[in-house]
Amino acid sequence: MVGVIWIVALVLTTFTVAYIGYGRYLSQFVDLDDSRETPAHKYQDGQEYVPAKKPVLLGHHYSSIAGGAPVVGPITAALVWGWVPAVLWVAIGNPLLGAVHDFVSLSSSLRHEGKSIGYIIGQYVGERGKNMLLWFAFLLTILVVAVFALVIGVVLNAYPSAATASLLYVTLAFVFGLWLYQLGLPFSVGTVVFVTGVFASVWVGIQYPLAIVPGDYPAGTIVLFDSALFFPELLDSANIGAWVLVMLVYGAAASVLPVWMLLQPRDYLSSFLLYTGVGGSLLAVIVGTYITGMGSDAVHPETGEALSFEITTGAWYGFLGQGGPLADMIPLMPLFPLLFLTIACGTISGFHSLVSSGTTAKQLNKETDARLIGYGGMLAEGLLAAVALCAVTLVAIPAGAGGIGLALPNFATGGGAILTAFGIPFEYAAPFMALVLASFLLTSMDTAVRLGRYMLEEIIGTPETAVEEYAANRYVNTSIIAVVAFFLLGSGRWEDLWTLFGGANQLLASLALLTATIWLANWSQSKQLISTGGPMALMGFITIIGLSWVGLYQILGGRLLGITAEAETTLIPQLSAVVQLVIIAILIGLALSLFKIGYDNMQTARRTGDGVAADVGADDD
After folding, report:
1. Are 347 and 93 in contact (CB under 8 A)?
2. Is the pLDDT of residue 212 over 70?
3. Torsions phi, psi for 207 (to 5 deg)
4. Burial 56-69 (b: 16+ CB within 10 A, else e)
5. How does residue 182 score in pLDDT terms, banded at 50, 70 and 90?
6. Strand partners, 52
7. pLDDT tens across 220-229, in order?
8. What are phi and psi of 560, to 5 degrees?
Protein backbone atom coordinates (compact mmCIF):
# COMPACT_ATOMS: atom_id res chain seq x y z
CA MET A 1 0.00 0.00 0.00
CA VAL A 2 1.05 3.58 -0.69
CA GLY A 3 1.19 6.03 2.22
CA VAL A 4 0.18 9.70 2.24
CA ILE A 5 3.81 10.52 3.02
CA TRP A 6 4.41 10.44 -0.74
CA ILE A 7 1.87 13.23 -1.28
CA VAL A 8 3.59 15.35 1.34
CA ALA A 9 7.08 14.59 -0.02
CA LEU A 10 6.19 15.52 -3.61
CA VAL A 11 4.49 18.80 -2.70
CA LEU A 12 7.18 19.92 -0.23
CA THR A 13 9.95 19.15 -2.74
CA THR A 14 8.45 21.01 -5.71
CA PHE A 15 7.39 23.98 -3.58
CA THR A 16 10.78 24.35 -1.89
CA VAL A 17 12.71 24.20 -5.16
CA ALA A 18 10.31 26.66 -6.79
CA TYR A 19 10.47 29.23 -3.97
CA ILE A 20 14.27 29.18 -3.81
CA GLY A 21 14.80 29.23 -7.56
CA TYR A 22 11.82 30.61 -9.48
CA GLY A 23 10.68 32.95 -6.70
CA ARG A 24 14.14 34.56 -6.57
CA TYR A 25 14.22 34.92 -10.35
CA LEU A 26 10.81 36.62 -10.43
CA SER A 27 11.89 39.05 -7.68
CA GLN A 28 14.80 40.14 -9.84
CA PHE A 29 12.63 40.12 -12.97
CA VAL A 30 10.23 42.76 -11.61
CA ASP A 31 13.09 44.65 -9.95
CA LEU A 32 11.95 44.63 -6.32
CA ASP A 33 13.83 47.43 -4.56
CA ASP A 34 13.50 48.48 -0.91
CA SER A 35 14.71 51.99 -1.73
CA ARG A 36 11.35 52.72 -3.34
CA GLU A 37 8.54 54.03 -1.15
CA THR A 38 5.62 51.61 -1.10
CA PRO A 39 2.01 52.82 -1.40
CA ALA A 40 1.45 51.93 2.27
CA HIS A 41 3.94 54.60 3.30
CA LYS A 42 3.27 57.08 0.50
CA TYR A 43 -0.49 57.22 1.07
CA GLN A 44 -0.71 56.18 4.72
CA ASP A 45 -4.17 57.19 5.94
CA GLY A 46 -4.85 54.96 8.96
CA GLN A 47 -7.81 53.42 7.14
CA GLU A 48 -6.79 51.45 4.04
CA TYR A 49 -3.11 52.33 3.52
CA VAL A 50 -1.38 51.07 6.67
CA PRO A 51 2.18 49.64 6.64
CA ALA A 52 2.26 46.22 8.29
CA LYS A 53 5.09 44.09 9.63
CA LYS A 54 5.92 41.18 7.33
CA PRO A 55 4.51 38.42 9.63
CA VAL A 56 1.32 40.44 10.22
CA LEU A 57 0.76 41.02 6.52
CA LEU A 58 1.60 37.42 5.65
CA GLY A 59 -1.01 36.36 8.18
CA HIS A 60 -3.60 38.66 6.61
CA HIS A 61 -2.77 37.64 3.06
CA TYR A 62 -2.66 33.89 3.74
CA SER A 63 -5.84 33.98 5.79
CA SER A 64 -7.62 35.98 3.09
CA ILE A 65 -6.67 33.89 0.07
CA ALA A 66 -7.08 30.49 1.74
CA GLY A 67 -10.80 29.77 1.88
CA GLY A 68 -12.95 26.71 1.32
CA ALA A 69 -12.00 26.15 -2.33
CA PRO A 70 -8.56 24.54 -1.71
CA VAL A 71 -10.39 22.06 0.53
CA VAL A 72 -13.52 21.40 -1.52
CA GLY A 73 -11.79 21.21 -4.92
CA PRO A 74 -8.99 18.70 -4.18
CA ILE A 75 -11.29 16.44 -2.17
CA THR A 76 -13.86 16.34 -4.95
CA ALA A 77 -11.23 15.78 -7.65
CA ALA A 78 -9.57 12.93 -5.73
CA LEU A 79 -12.87 11.05 -5.54
CA VAL A 80 -13.81 11.74 -9.17
CA TRP A 81 -10.57 11.10 -11.10
CA GLY A 82 -8.24 9.68 -8.43
CA TRP A 83 -5.62 11.18 -6.15
CA VAL A 84 -2.70 11.09 -8.64
CA PRO A 85 -4.00 13.71 -11.13
CA ALA A 86 -5.18 15.87 -8.23
CA VAL A 87 -1.77 15.80 -6.54
CA LEU A 88 0.12 16.47 -9.78
CA TRP A 89 -2.01 19.52 -10.63
CA VAL A 90 -1.35 20.99 -7.17
CA ALA A 91 2.36 20.08 -6.97
CA ILE A 92 3.27 21.33 -10.46
CA GLY A 93 0.61 23.90 -11.28
CA ASN A 94 0.82 25.88 -8.05
CA PRO A 95 4.48 27.08 -8.32
CA LEU A 96 4.39 27.57 -12.10
CA LEU A 97 0.96 29.18 -12.43
CA GLY A 98 -0.72 30.15 -9.16
CA ALA A 99 2.28 31.51 -7.26
CA VAL A 100 3.37 33.46 -10.35
CA HIS A 101 -0.17 34.88 -10.67
CA ASP A 102 -0.26 36.05 -7.05
CA PHE A 103 3.26 37.49 -7.11
CA VAL A 104 2.87 39.52 -10.30
CA SER A 105 -0.59 40.73 -9.22
CA LEU A 106 0.95 42.08 -6.01
CA SER A 107 4.03 43.49 -7.76
CA SER A 108 2.08 45.27 -10.49
CA SER A 109 -0.28 46.82 -7.92
CA LEU A 110 2.74 47.89 -5.88
CA ARG A 111 4.01 49.87 -8.87
CA HIS A 112 0.59 51.43 -9.51
CA GLU A 113 -0.09 53.07 -6.15
CA GLY A 114 -1.72 50.00 -4.62
CA LYS A 115 -4.57 50.09 -7.13
CA SER A 116 -6.57 47.08 -8.33
CA ILE A 117 -5.96 45.04 -11.47
CA GLY A 118 -8.90 46.89 -13.05
CA TYR A 119 -7.15 50.22 -12.60
CA ILE A 120 -3.88 48.79 -13.92
CA ILE A 121 -5.35 47.39 -17.11
CA GLY A 122 -7.17 50.70 -17.61
CA GLN A 123 -3.79 52.47 -17.70
CA TYR A 124 -2.86 50.52 -20.81
CA VAL A 125 -6.05 49.61 -22.68
CA GLY A 126 -8.39 52.42 -21.69
CA GLU A 127 -11.57 53.00 -19.71
CA ARG A 128 -13.60 50.36 -21.54
CA GLY A 129 -11.21 47.54 -20.65
CA LYS A 130 -10.95 48.80 -17.09
CA ASN A 131 -14.72 48.81 -16.56
CA MET A 132 -15.13 45.37 -18.13
CA LEU A 133 -12.57 43.87 -15.78
CA LEU A 134 -13.90 45.69 -12.73
CA TRP A 135 -17.44 44.50 -13.37
CA PHE A 136 -16.14 40.98 -13.88
CA ALA A 137 -14.25 41.17 -10.58
CA PHE A 138 -17.17 42.75 -8.74
CA LEU A 139 -19.53 39.95 -9.80
CA LEU A 140 -16.96 37.39 -8.70
CA THR A 141 -16.69 38.94 -5.22
CA ILE A 142 -20.44 38.56 -4.75
CA LEU A 143 -20.18 34.87 -5.71
CA VAL A 144 -17.28 34.46 -3.28
CA VAL A 145 -19.22 36.10 -0.45
CA ALA A 146 -22.27 33.92 -1.13
CA VAL A 147 -20.37 30.64 -1.43
CA PHE A 148 -18.10 31.22 1.58
CA ALA A 149 -20.94 32.45 3.81
CA LEU A 150 -22.86 29.28 3.00
CA VAL A 151 -19.88 27.01 3.71
CA ILE A 152 -19.27 28.82 7.03
CA GLY A 153 -22.91 28.22 7.94
CA VAL A 154 -22.52 24.52 7.18
CA VAL A 155 -19.30 24.23 9.21
CA LEU A 156 -20.69 26.05 12.26
CA ASN A 157 -23.88 23.99 12.10
CA ALA A 158 -21.98 20.70 11.94
CA TYR A 159 -19.43 21.75 14.59
CA PRO A 160 -21.02 24.13 17.15
CA SER A 161 -17.72 24.18 19.04
CA ALA A 162 -16.17 26.00 16.06
CA ALA A 163 -18.87 28.67 16.35
CA THR A 164 -17.90 29.54 19.93
CA ALA A 165 -14.21 29.55 19.15
CA SER A 166 -14.71 31.73 16.06
CA LEU A 167 -16.63 34.37 18.00
CA LEU A 168 -13.97 34.40 20.72
CA TYR A 169 -11.02 34.87 18.41
CA VAL A 170 -12.75 37.71 16.52
CA THR A 171 -13.21 39.43 19.91
CA LEU A 172 -9.54 38.82 20.75
CA ALA A 173 -8.58 40.41 17.42
CA PHE A 174 -10.40 43.65 18.32
CA VAL A 175 -8.52 43.83 21.61
CA PHE A 176 -5.19 43.01 19.93
CA GLY A 177 -5.76 45.86 17.46
CA LEU A 178 -6.20 48.27 20.35
CA TRP A 179 -3.14 46.78 22.06
CA LEU A 180 -0.92 47.44 19.03
CA TYR A 181 -2.21 50.62 17.44
CA GLN A 182 -3.88 52.59 20.22
CA LEU A 183 -2.00 51.58 23.34
CA GLY A 184 1.35 51.04 21.59
CA LEU A 185 2.15 47.96 23.66
CA PRO A 186 4.89 45.47 22.66
CA PHE A 187 4.18 43.40 19.54
CA SER A 188 6.03 40.29 20.73
CA VAL A 189 4.32 40.26 24.14
CA GLY A 190 0.94 40.77 22.49
CA THR A 191 1.63 37.90 20.11
CA VAL A 192 2.26 35.51 23.00
CA VAL A 193 -0.75 36.69 25.00
CA PHE A 194 -3.30 36.75 22.21
CA VAL A 195 -2.14 33.67 20.30
CA THR A 196 -2.45 31.79 23.58
CA GLY A 197 -5.95 33.21 23.85
CA VAL A 198 -6.83 31.96 20.35
CA PHE A 199 -5.83 28.40 21.20
CA ALA A 200 -7.61 28.65 24.54
CA SER A 201 -10.75 29.61 22.62
CA VAL A 202 -10.59 26.23 20.88
CA TRP A 203 -10.82 24.49 24.26
CA VAL A 204 -13.63 26.83 25.37
CA GLY A 205 -15.52 26.09 22.17
CA ILE A 206 -15.30 22.35 22.74
CA GLN A 207 -16.59 22.81 26.28
CA TYR A 208 -19.35 25.28 25.37
CA PRO A 209 -20.55 24.71 21.79
CA LEU A 210 -23.00 27.25 20.35
CA ALA A 211 -25.98 27.14 17.99
CA ILE A 212 -28.58 29.77 17.09
CA VAL A 213 -31.76 27.70 16.73
CA PRO A 214 -32.75 24.22 17.98
CA GLY A 215 -31.40 21.19 16.17
CA ASP A 216 -29.50 17.92 16.52
CA TYR A 217 -26.32 19.03 18.31
CA PRO A 218 -23.79 17.50 20.74
CA ALA A 219 -24.81 17.40 24.38
CA GLY A 220 -24.26 20.67 26.21
CA THR A 221 -24.68 22.90 23.17
CA ILE A 222 -25.91 26.40 24.04
CA VAL A 223 -28.91 27.32 21.83
CA LEU A 224 -29.66 31.04 21.62
CA PHE A 225 -33.30 30.89 20.47
CA ASP A 226 -36.10 28.48 21.33
CA SER A 227 -37.46 28.40 17.77
CA ALA A 228 -36.34 29.11 14.22
CA LEU A 229 -38.20 32.44 14.29
CA PHE A 230 -37.72 34.28 10.99
CA PHE A 231 -34.48 32.56 10.00
CA PRO A 232 -34.64 31.06 6.49
CA GLU A 233 -33.80 27.43 5.81
CA LEU A 234 -30.73 26.84 3.68
CA LEU A 235 -29.79 23.29 2.75
CA ASP A 236 -32.79 22.20 4.85
CA SER A 237 -31.45 23.81 8.02
CA ALA A 238 -32.65 26.97 9.76
CA ASN A 239 -29.44 27.02 11.81
CA ILE A 240 -27.38 27.20 8.62
CA GLY A 241 -29.61 30.01 7.40
CA ALA A 242 -29.20 31.85 10.70
CA TRP A 243 -25.41 31.57 10.65
CA VAL A 244 -25.33 32.75 7.01
CA LEU A 245 -27.24 35.90 8.03
CA VAL A 246 -24.87 36.49 10.95
CA MET A 247 -21.84 36.01 8.69
CA LEU A 248 -23.13 38.42 6.04
CA VAL A 249 -23.80 41.09 8.66
CA TYR A 250 -20.37 40.46 10.16
CA GLY A 251 -18.69 40.62 6.75
CA ALA A 252 -20.35 43.93 5.88
CA ALA A 253 -19.45 45.45 9.26
CA ALA A 254 -15.85 44.17 9.21
CA SER A 255 -15.25 45.50 5.69
CA VAL A 256 -15.89 49.14 6.64
CA LEU A 257 -13.70 49.18 9.75
CA PRO A 258 -10.11 50.49 9.49
CA VAL A 259 -7.76 47.64 8.63
CA TRP A 260 -5.83 48.07 11.90
CA MET A 261 -8.95 47.55 14.00
CA LEU A 262 -9.89 44.03 12.86
CA LEU A 263 -8.46 42.89 9.52
CA GLN A 264 -4.74 43.04 10.34
CA PRO A 265 -4.81 41.75 13.95
CA ARG A 266 -7.48 39.10 13.29
CA ASP A 267 -5.74 37.67 10.27
CA TYR A 268 -2.41 37.66 12.08
CA LEU A 269 -3.85 35.81 15.07
CA SER A 270 -5.86 33.37 13.00
CA SER A 271 -2.78 32.64 10.89
CA PHE A 272 -1.24 30.86 13.89
CA LEU A 273 -4.31 28.66 14.03
CA LEU A 274 -4.05 28.03 10.31
CA TYR A 275 -0.30 27.42 10.35
CA THR A 276 -0.83 24.92 13.15
CA GLY A 277 -3.62 23.14 11.30
CA VAL A 278 -1.78 22.95 7.98
CA GLY A 279 1.82 22.71 9.18
CA GLY A 280 0.86 20.47 12.07
CA SER A 281 -0.96 18.08 9.75
CA LEU A 282 1.98 17.84 7.36
CA LEU A 283 4.40 17.25 10.25
CA ALA A 284 2.00 14.72 11.77
CA VAL A 285 2.05 12.73 8.53
CA ILE A 286 5.84 12.51 8.74
CA VAL A 287 5.94 11.74 12.47
CA GLY A 288 3.03 9.32 12.29
CA THR A 289 4.44 7.45 9.29
CA TYR A 290 7.89 6.86 10.73
CA ILE A 291 7.51 7.09 14.52
CA THR A 292 4.18 7.09 16.32
CA GLY A 293 1.54 5.78 13.93
CA MET A 294 -2.06 6.93 14.11
CA GLY A 295 -4.01 7.07 17.36
CA SER A 296 -6.05 3.98 18.23
CA ASP A 297 -9.18 6.11 18.68
CA ALA A 298 -9.05 7.28 15.03
CA VAL A 299 -11.71 5.18 13.31
CA HIS A 300 -13.71 5.52 10.12
CA PRO A 301 -17.08 7.12 11.05
CA GLU A 302 -19.06 4.81 8.74
CA THR A 303 -17.26 1.45 8.92
CA GLY A 304 -15.75 1.71 12.41
CA GLU A 305 -12.44 0.38 11.09
CA ALA A 306 -9.17 1.71 12.47
CA LEU A 307 -7.46 4.27 10.24
CA SER A 308 -3.79 4.39 9.27
CA PHE A 309 -1.52 6.55 7.10
CA GLU A 310 -2.07 4.33 4.07
CA ILE A 311 -4.03 5.68 1.10
CA THR A 312 -7.41 3.98 0.76
CA THR A 313 -8.68 5.68 -2.41
CA GLY A 314 -7.86 4.86 -6.04
CA ALA A 315 -4.92 6.50 -7.79
CA TRP A 316 -6.84 6.73 -11.10
CA TYR A 317 -10.60 6.39 -11.77
CA GLY A 318 -10.51 7.05 -15.50
CA PHE A 319 -10.60 10.09 -17.77
CA LEU A 320 -14.38 10.48 -17.35
CA GLY A 321 -14.40 9.70 -13.62
CA GLN A 322 -16.78 6.79 -14.04
CA GLY A 323 -14.77 4.34 -11.95
CA GLY A 324 -14.80 6.29 -8.72
CA PRO A 325 -17.11 6.35 -5.67
CA LEU A 326 -19.02 9.40 -7.02
CA ALA A 327 -19.74 7.95 -10.47
CA ASP A 328 -23.47 7.51 -9.77
CA MET A 329 -23.86 10.96 -8.22
CA ILE A 330 -22.28 13.25 -10.81
CA PRO A 331 -22.68 14.03 -14.52
CA LEU A 332 -20.08 12.94 -17.06
CA MET A 333 -16.90 14.83 -16.11
CA PRO A 334 -13.91 14.64 -18.47
CA LEU A 335 -10.61 15.22 -16.69
CA PHE A 336 -9.73 17.81 -19.32
CA PRO A 337 -10.85 20.50 -18.79
CA LEU A 338 -12.88 19.99 -15.59
CA LEU A 339 -10.04 18.92 -13.27
CA PHE A 340 -8.50 22.37 -13.73
CA LEU A 341 -11.75 24.10 -12.79
CA THR A 342 -12.56 21.75 -9.90
CA ILE A 343 -9.19 22.35 -8.21
CA ALA A 344 -9.04 26.12 -8.34
CA CYS A 345 -7.59 27.91 -5.32
CA GLY A 346 -5.14 25.16 -4.37
CA THR A 347 -3.38 25.69 -7.69
CA ILE A 348 -4.43 29.07 -9.14
CA SER A 349 -7.21 31.51 -8.26
CA GLY A 350 -8.33 34.82 -9.71
CA PHE A 351 -9.70 35.87 -6.33
CA HIS A 352 -6.11 36.10 -5.10
CA SER A 353 -5.39 38.89 -7.59
CA LEU A 354 -8.14 40.92 -5.92
CA VAL A 355 -6.61 40.34 -2.49
CA SER A 356 -3.06 41.02 -3.69
CA SER A 357 -3.99 44.24 -5.50
CA GLY A 358 -6.86 45.20 -3.21
CA THR A 359 -5.70 45.00 0.40
CA THR A 360 -2.20 43.47 0.53
CA ALA A 361 -0.52 46.02 -1.77
CA LYS A 362 -1.87 48.82 0.42
CA GLN A 363 -0.13 47.37 3.47
CA LEU A 364 3.23 46.20 2.09
CA ASN A 365 6.04 47.68 4.16
CA LYS A 366 8.94 46.93 1.78
CA GLU A 367 9.00 45.86 -1.85
CA THR A 368 11.08 42.75 -1.16
CA ASP A 369 8.35 41.49 1.19
CA ALA A 370 6.34 40.70 -1.95
CA ARG A 371 8.30 37.51 -2.61
CA LEU A 372 7.36 35.84 0.67
CA ILE A 373 3.84 37.22 0.82
CA GLY A 374 2.86 36.89 -2.85
CA TYR A 375 4.78 33.86 -4.12
CA GLY A 376 5.22 32.14 -0.74
CA GLY A 377 1.64 32.81 0.37
CA MET A 378 0.29 30.90 -2.64
CA LEU A 379 2.61 27.99 -1.98
CA ALA A 380 1.21 27.92 1.57
CA GLU A 381 -2.29 27.62 0.13
CA GLY A 382 -1.06 24.70 -1.95
CA LEU A 383 -0.03 23.05 1.32
CA LEU A 384 -3.64 23.37 2.50
CA ALA A 385 -4.73 21.57 -0.67
CA ALA A 386 -2.14 18.86 0.09
CA VAL A 387 -3.57 18.44 3.61
CA ALA A 388 -7.07 18.13 2.11
CA LEU A 389 -5.80 15.43 -0.27
CA CYS A 390 -4.12 13.56 2.60
CA ALA A 391 -7.34 13.73 4.60
CA VAL A 392 -9.63 12.41 1.85
CA THR A 393 -7.29 9.61 0.80
CA LEU A 394 -7.32 8.32 4.38
CA VAL A 395 -11.07 8.27 5.06
CA ALA A 396 -12.78 8.70 1.65
CA ILE A 397 -16.32 9.45 2.85
CA PRO A 398 -18.41 9.79 -0.35
CA ALA A 399 -21.08 11.95 1.31
CA GLY A 400 -23.45 13.84 -0.94
CA ALA A 401 -22.67 14.63 -4.57
CA GLY A 402 -19.63 16.79 -3.94
CA GLY A 403 -19.21 20.29 -2.58
CA ILE A 404 -19.89 21.01 1.07
CA GLY A 405 -21.36 17.64 1.98
CA LEU A 406 -18.27 15.95 0.60
CA ALA A 407 -15.53 18.28 1.83
CA LEU A 408 -16.50 18.87 5.46
CA PRO A 409 -16.55 15.29 6.82
CA ASN A 410 -13.44 14.33 4.88
CA PHE A 411 -11.36 17.34 5.93
CA ALA A 412 -12.41 17.38 9.58
CA THR A 413 -12.38 13.60 10.07
CA GLY A 414 -9.29 12.85 7.99
CA GLY A 415 -7.39 15.86 9.31
CA GLY A 416 -8.34 14.99 12.88
CA ALA A 417 -7.15 11.42 12.37
CA ILE A 418 -3.79 12.73 11.12
CA LEU A 419 -3.31 14.90 14.24
CA THR A 420 -3.75 11.88 16.52
CA ALA A 421 -0.14 11.03 15.61
CA PHE A 422 0.80 13.68 18.20
CA GLY A 423 -1.33 12.01 20.85
CA ILE A 424 -4.22 14.47 20.47
CA PRO A 425 -7.54 12.73 21.19
CA PHE A 426 -9.59 12.21 18.03
CA GLU A 427 -12.67 13.79 19.66
CA TYR A 428 -10.71 17.06 20.00
CA ALA A 429 -8.71 16.88 16.79
CA ALA A 430 -11.68 16.67 14.41
CA PRO A 431 -13.45 19.79 15.80
CA PHE A 432 -10.11 21.61 15.72
CA MET A 433 -9.75 20.91 11.99
CA ALA A 434 -13.34 22.11 11.49
CA LEU A 435 -12.33 25.36 13.22
CA VAL A 436 -9.31 25.65 10.92
CA LEU A 437 -11.65 25.42 7.93
CA ALA A 438 -14.03 27.98 9.47
CA SER A 439 -11.09 30.34 10.12
CA PHE A 440 -10.01 30.24 6.49
CA LEU A 441 -13.53 30.94 5.36
CA LEU A 442 -14.22 33.79 7.79
CA THR A 443 -11.19 35.79 6.77
CA SER A 444 -11.74 35.23 3.05
CA MET A 445 -15.42 36.11 3.21
CA ASP A 446 -15.15 39.52 4.86
CA THR A 447 -12.08 40.37 2.78
CA ALA A 448 -14.21 39.64 -0.30
CA VAL A 449 -16.83 42.14 0.91
CA ARG A 450 -14.13 44.80 1.33
CA LEU A 451 -12.76 44.03 -2.13
CA GLY A 452 -16.23 44.26 -3.64
CA ARG A 453 -16.51 47.72 -2.09
CA TYR A 454 -13.22 48.72 -3.68
CA MET A 455 -14.38 47.42 -7.07
CA LEU A 456 -17.65 49.36 -6.97
CA GLU A 457 -15.90 52.54 -5.83
CA GLU A 458 -13.43 52.25 -8.72
CA ILE A 459 -16.25 51.64 -11.21
CA ILE A 460 -18.04 54.79 -10.04
CA GLY A 461 -14.89 56.90 -9.80
CA THR A 462 -15.63 60.48 -8.77
CA PRO A 463 -19.39 60.62 -8.07
CA GLU A 464 -21.19 63.08 -10.33
CA THR A 465 -24.82 62.36 -9.46
CA ALA A 466 -26.78 61.78 -6.28
CA VAL A 467 -27.20 58.10 -7.21
CA GLU A 468 -23.46 57.65 -7.72
CA GLU A 469 -22.76 59.47 -4.45
CA TYR A 470 -25.15 57.11 -2.69
CA ALA A 471 -23.69 53.98 -4.33
CA ALA A 472 -20.13 55.07 -3.50
CA ASN A 473 -20.95 55.26 0.20
CA ARG A 474 -19.07 52.44 1.93
CA TYR A 475 -22.01 51.52 4.14
CA VAL A 476 -24.42 51.40 1.24
CA ASN A 477 -22.31 49.37 -1.18
CA THR A 478 -21.29 46.79 1.43
CA SER A 479 -24.96 46.35 2.27
CA ILE A 480 -25.73 45.87 -1.42
CA ILE A 481 -23.09 43.14 -1.69
CA ALA A 482 -24.39 41.31 1.40
CA VAL A 483 -28.06 41.49 0.32
CA VAL A 484 -27.38 40.32 -3.24
CA ALA A 485 -25.24 37.46 -1.93
CA PHE A 486 -28.05 36.36 0.40
CA PHE A 487 -30.69 36.35 -2.32
CA LEU A 488 -28.31 34.46 -4.58
CA LEU A 489 -28.09 31.78 -1.89
CA GLY A 490 -31.84 31.71 -1.39
CA SER A 491 -32.64 31.17 -5.05
CA GLY A 492 -29.95 28.75 -6.22
CA ARG A 493 -28.48 25.34 -5.48
CA TRP A 494 -25.00 24.74 -4.12
CA GLU A 495 -23.91 22.94 -7.29
CA ASP A 496 -24.96 25.93 -9.40
CA LEU A 497 -23.10 28.41 -7.22
CA TRP A 498 -19.93 26.32 -7.18
CA THR A 499 -19.89 25.98 -10.98
CA LEU A 500 -20.33 29.72 -11.47
CA PHE A 501 -17.76 30.55 -8.81
CA GLY A 502 -15.17 28.09 -10.13
CA GLY A 503 -15.51 29.17 -13.74
CA ALA A 504 -15.51 32.90 -12.99
CA ASN A 505 -12.61 32.49 -10.57
CA GLN A 506 -10.33 30.68 -13.00
CA LEU A 507 -11.21 33.00 -15.85
CA LEU A 508 -10.36 36.02 -13.69
CA ALA A 509 -6.97 34.41 -12.96
CA SER A 510 -6.28 34.38 -16.68
CA LEU A 511 -7.36 38.02 -16.97
CA ALA A 512 -5.12 39.00 -14.04
CA LEU A 513 -2.20 37.33 -15.82
CA LEU A 514 -3.21 39.23 -18.96
CA THR A 515 -3.00 42.47 -16.96
CA ALA A 516 0.48 41.59 -15.70
CA THR A 517 1.61 40.61 -19.19
CA ILE A 518 0.39 43.93 -20.62
CA TRP A 519 2.23 45.77 -17.81
CA LEU A 520 5.47 43.94 -18.62
CA ALA A 521 5.08 44.49 -22.37
CA ASN A 522 4.64 48.22 -21.82
CA TRP A 523 7.51 48.34 -19.31
CA SER A 524 10.22 47.35 -21.78
CA GLN A 525 10.55 45.75 -25.21
CA SER A 526 13.20 43.45 -23.75
CA LYS A 527 10.98 41.95 -21.03
CA GLN A 528 10.17 38.30 -21.67
CA LEU A 529 6.45 37.55 -21.47
CA ILE A 530 6.52 33.74 -21.18
CA SER A 531 6.37 33.59 -17.34
CA THR A 532 2.98 35.35 -17.30
CA GLY A 533 1.81 34.92 -20.90
CA GLY A 534 2.15 31.13 -20.87
CA PRO A 535 -0.05 30.59 -17.78
CA MET A 536 -2.46 33.25 -19.09
CA ALA A 537 -3.00 31.46 -22.41
CA LEU A 538 -3.23 28.03 -20.77
CA MET A 539 -5.79 29.05 -18.15
CA GLY A 540 -7.80 31.14 -20.61
CA PHE A 541 -8.10 28.21 -23.02
CA ILE A 542 -8.87 25.64 -20.31
CA THR A 543 -11.47 27.80 -18.57
CA ILE A 544 -13.34 28.80 -21.70
CA ILE A 545 -13.51 25.14 -22.81
CA GLY A 546 -14.60 24.11 -19.31
CA LEU A 547 -17.34 26.73 -19.03
CA SER A 548 -18.54 25.79 -22.51
CA TRP A 549 -18.78 22.13 -21.47
CA VAL A 550 -20.74 23.01 -18.34
CA GLY A 551 -23.07 25.33 -20.27
CA LEU A 552 -23.72 23.11 -23.27
CA TYR A 553 -23.53 19.61 -21.75
CA GLN A 554 -24.72 19.99 -18.17
CA ILE A 555 -27.12 22.93 -18.36
CA LEU A 556 -28.45 23.15 -21.91
CA GLY A 557 -28.22 19.47 -22.82
CA GLY A 558 -29.19 18.22 -19.38
CA ARG A 559 -31.30 20.53 -17.24
CA LEU A 560 -33.07 22.29 -20.14
CA LEU A 561 -33.32 19.75 -23.00
CA GLY A 562 -33.08 16.48 -21.04
CA ILE A 563 -30.62 14.90 -23.51
CA THR A 564 -27.59 14.31 -21.29
CA ALA A 565 -29.44 14.18 -17.95
CA GLU A 566 -32.91 14.47 -16.43
CA ALA A 567 -34.46 17.81 -17.36
CA GLU A 568 -35.85 20.32 -14.88
CA THR A 569 -39.63 20.14 -14.77
CA THR A 570 -40.62 23.20 -12.72
CA LEU A 571 -40.38 26.89 -13.55
CA ILE A 572 -37.87 28.19 -10.97
CA PRO A 573 -35.16 25.57 -11.67
CA GLN A 574 -35.66 26.12 -15.40
CA LEU A 575 -35.26 29.89 -15.00
CA SER A 576 -32.19 29.28 -12.83
CA ALA A 577 -30.64 27.13 -15.57
CA VAL A 578 -31.31 29.82 -18.18
CA VAL A 579 -29.76 32.52 -15.98
CA GLN A 580 -26.67 30.36 -15.43
CA LEU A 581 -26.35 29.80 -19.17
CA VAL A 582 -26.57 33.54 -19.78
CA ILE A 583 -23.95 34.25 -17.09
CA ILE A 584 -21.56 31.74 -18.66
CA ALA A 585 -22.01 33.40 -22.04
CA ILE A 586 -21.37 36.85 -20.53
CA LEU A 587 -18.23 35.65 -18.73
CA ILE A 588 -16.80 34.12 -21.89
CA GLY A 589 -17.74 37.18 -23.97
CA LEU A 590 -16.10 39.60 -21.53
CA ALA A 591 -12.97 37.48 -21.36
CA LEU A 592 -12.58 37.14 -25.14
CA SER A 593 -13.06 40.90 -25.57
CA LEU A 594 -10.41 41.68 -22.95
CA PHE A 595 -7.98 39.17 -24.47
CA LYS A 596 -8.40 40.87 -27.86
CA ILE A 597 -7.91 44.37 -26.41
CA GLY A 598 -4.88 43.27 -24.40
CA TYR A 599 -3.26 41.46 -27.32
CA ASP A 600 -3.61 44.54 -29.53
CA ASN A 601 -1.98 46.69 -26.83
CA MET A 602 0.95 44.32 -26.41
CA GLN A 603 1.50 44.17 -30.17
CA THR A 604 1.51 47.97 -30.36
CA ALA A 605 3.89 48.33 -27.41
CA ARG A 606 6.33 45.80 -28.85
CA ARG A 607 6.15 47.25 -32.38
CA THR A 608 6.44 50.96 -31.58
CA GLY A 609 8.03 51.02 -28.13
CA ASP A 610 5.52 53.71 -27.12
CA GLY A 611 3.96 51.80 -24.22
CA VAL A 612 2.67 53.57 -21.16
CA ALA A 613 5.20 53.90 -18.35
CA ALA A 614 5.22 50.68 -16.40
CA ASP A 615 6.30 52.17 -13.10
CA VAL A 616 3.56 54.69 -12.40
CA GLY A 617 4.52 57.00 -9.59
CA ALA A 618 7.99 55.52 -9.09
CA ASP A 619 11.43 56.24 -10.45
CA ASP A 620 13.07 53.76 -12.76
CA ASP A 621 16.67 52.92 -12.07
Report:
1. yes
2. yes
3. -80, -35
4. bbbbbbbbbbbbbb
5. confident
6. 364
7. 899 999 888 7
8. -100, -45
Choose among 433, 320, 294, 321: nearest CA to 3: 294
| Each residue's pLDDT tens digit, 2-50 | 899 999 999 999 999 999 999 999 999 999 999 999 999 999 988 789 8
Task: Report the distance separating Cα 439 and Cα 27, nearest Å.
Answer: 30
Q: Is 403 exposed, middle or buried (0-12, 13-18, 19+ CB in 10 A)?
A: buried
Rounded to a whole number, what is the distance in angstroms from the first to the last CA of the chain?
Answer: 57
Global pTM value: 0.87
pLDDT band at 564 (very low <50, low <70, confident <90, very high): confident
Predicted local distance difference test score (pLDDT) of residue 25: 97
CB 159 within 8 A of CB 412: yes
The DSSP-derived string for 146-178 is HHHHHHHHHHHHH-HHHHHHHHHHHHHHHHHHI
Strand residues in 414-545 grouped as ranges (E) = none
* Spatial separation of the C-alpha atoms in residues 454 and 550, rounded to whole Å: 31
Q: E strands along 180-314, which residues?
A: 210-211, 222-223
- Rounded-to-integer distance, Cα 167 and Cα 146, Å: 20
